[in-house]
Design a protein that fits this description.
By secondary structure, the protein is an alpha+beta fold. The protein has a domain of 102 residues. The protein contains three helices and seven strands. The chain is elongated.
């Protein structure tokens, strides 16, 4: 008789590989689907910390909605006026920049967008409320709580 594998041995090996695949593949895809959630939590944390640092350095004032991007990514003075370099300042104390760029939204139908506004517009990625200094993702199906993001029906 030959030294090869019998048909039964080959079938057993194929069945075992199939069982391992059935167990492993869903776990791998679940991990990939939650990477967007982790990125969103991280981006929100960075944005919220930047807003709080701005407020601390600007006498308790939050960035304004109309100038949010420039106030976060440029230098500024105590009044919140933005400028591109320290040479452009009027000689006072210079603050910032707090971010290199506004992070793109990592999930949802607006993925990749960076616009900041007060409401959920078609191109809005981040909704910002100036008076309380709150920011959240402009993504339908995302519920926010004090700890970050809770995905309800995403």
């Amino acid at each position: 008789m030959g030294r090869g594998f019998s048909l039964i041995e080959l079938v057993v090996v194929v069945v075992l590989i199939g069982i391992i695949a059935v167990i492993a593949i869903p776990r791998l895809t679940r991990g990939a689907s939650h990477s967007g959630e982790a990125a969103l939590r991280s981006d929100l944390d960075v944005l919220r910390r930047s807003i709080e640092l701005y407020r601390a350095e600007h006498g308790g004032n939050y960035p304004t909605v109309g100038s949010f991007v420039s106030q976060m990514v440029s230098f500024s003075d105590l009044s919140g006026s933005s400028f591109s370099s320290t040479a452009d300042s009027a000689g006072g104390i210079v603050y910032g920049p707090y971010l290199q760029a506004i992070p793109p939204l990592p999930i949802g139908e607006k993925k990749g967008k960076t616009a900041v506004a007060t409401n959920h517009g078609a191109t809005t990625a981040w909704c910002y409320g100036e008076s309380p200094g709150h920011i959240h993702a402009a993504t339908p199906g995302v519920e926010l709580d004090a700890d970050g993001v809770k995905y309800s029906d995403y």
